[in-house]
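Sample log: AB hydrolase superfamily protein B1A11.02.
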Amino acid sequence: MWPLKNLVIYALSYGLRILDWIQIALSRRCRVVASNDVKIELIRIPSRDSGRYIRAYRYTPANATGKLPVYLHWHASGWVLKRLGIDIHLCSRISKELNCVVLECDYRKAPENKYPAAHNDTEDAVLYVLANEHAYDTTRISVGGSSAGGNMALSLSARLGSERIKSCFALYPAAHLTHPERLDTVMGCVSDKFRSGVVIPHWCMKLFINAYTTPGTDMNDPRLSPMFYDASKFPKYVAVACGDADTLYRMSFDLMKKISGSASGTNVDGSRKFICVPNEAHEFNTFGRTRASQEERDRVEGEAINMIRASWRQ
């Protein structure tokens, strides 16, 4: 039975990759460089495995001098889709406006690589920066990501601690993973109307979970589900944004209510903030079909930039 289930997971995963590549190609104009004053280069980051490297795009402001702070970012994927470079708009804008280095990092994908492979790769990227204090301002490091990438950024920010990670920005993160048969208890949105993005059906989320985890995986492991970290583990500055028509809205909002200590998802001084994006679904920023969606993307990016800037001033 298990080999047949595995075959189905592989077949569906490869099918989704093909469909995703087509969608990305057809919507390329939705994702442009936010600033031409940024140098973009492909680099290789050493991993914990001898001889294996992690690909990353490094964004550096033109004419930058001296050691710059670093923002590390991981793309959405469901731990399955291969999409390095898809967040070029966000990454180039952050690099330009914060005068920082942005590392948009890849990570191993499922079903070929099971948990904690991707999580290890994200951690290795941060450890690479920390080990190169001659090249980077390691006193000012922030992390962020979208969906699965947001999950891992949140996990890293709590795991590595606020002494090393100053802030975290997560777009519609998969903040609470659970057994596939219990997804109804953690997934949900507050609106069925949206301009841009996609709605993740339960069957697709089940596929992603089954692709990345094994039957023996502890779904209460906080590294896999940031929801289970104590609020005190996260950096002082955390921002989470999610569309109200996104099926990951419920878990995103629940996480921020927990770590902010507020029913609104935002604490008194605004350092931990939930950003509700009206009339948008999952990846509205990546596949923005309307001008209004692109304006919401720009607004959310601006909020993230302000939060990261504030964390680096502490």
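Observation: The mean pLDDT is 97.
Observation: The longest strand covers residues 136-146.
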